């Protein structure tokens, strides 16, 4: 992931709590849609063609569902976007970068890319992106 955080909506910060519920959901969906545009569409299409990649994404998605407290139904847009923002911030701090999606080797993704794709998969499954 480059330091370009354009997939995250302005004003999300880490605290979605300063906004009305409607605004929180709108900002969360914007964040998740940006992540889908940046990485999710390409990555999930690649996973559709690779059982191994899909299995890895599914494992990460299960861990995220457990971490956010809803292992059966999956997280709502606001908690999922908050989680995505936290992952993004940690990756920026660690100076982790993903090459442009047209140069990614989808067969050998690092943990951060798998985690971000799992967020995308959960967002899509939940109808949030």
Helix coverage percent:
55-70%
Which percent band covers the strand fraction?
A: under 5%
Output the number of helix runs: 4
Tell me how many strands there are.
Answer: 0
Defining traits:
single chain, 129 residues, mainly alpha, 4 helices, 0% strand, disordered N terminus
Overview of this structure, please?
The structure is a single chain. This protein has 129 residues and is mainly alpha-helical. 60% of the residues lie in helices and 0% in strands. It contains four helices and no strands. The protein has helices spanning 21-49, 51-67, 77-93, 111-125. The longest helix has 29 residues, at 21-49. The protein is globular and about 40 Å long. Residues 1-14 have low confidence and may be disordered.
Summarize the structure.
60% of the residues lie in helices and 0% in strands. It contains four helices and no strands.
List the helices and strands and how they pair.
Layout lengths: L20 H29 L1 H17 L9 H17 L17 H15 L4
């Amino acid at each position: 992931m480059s330091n370009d955080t354009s997939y995250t909506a302005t004003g999300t910060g880490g605290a979605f709590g300063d906004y009305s519920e409607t605004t929180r959901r709108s900002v969360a969906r914007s964040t998740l849609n940006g992540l889908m545009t940046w990485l999710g569409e390409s990555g999930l299409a690649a996973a559709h063609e690779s059982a191994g990649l899909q299995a890895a994404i599914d494992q990460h998605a299960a861990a995220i569902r457990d971490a956010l407290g809803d292992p059966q139904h999956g997280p709502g847009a606001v908690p999922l976007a908050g989680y995505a923002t936290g992952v993004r911030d940690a990756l920026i701090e660690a100076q982790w970068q993903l090459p442009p999606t047209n140069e990614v080797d989808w067969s050998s993704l690092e943990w951060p890319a798998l985690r971000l794709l799992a967020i995308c998969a959960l967002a899509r499954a939940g109808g949030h992106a």
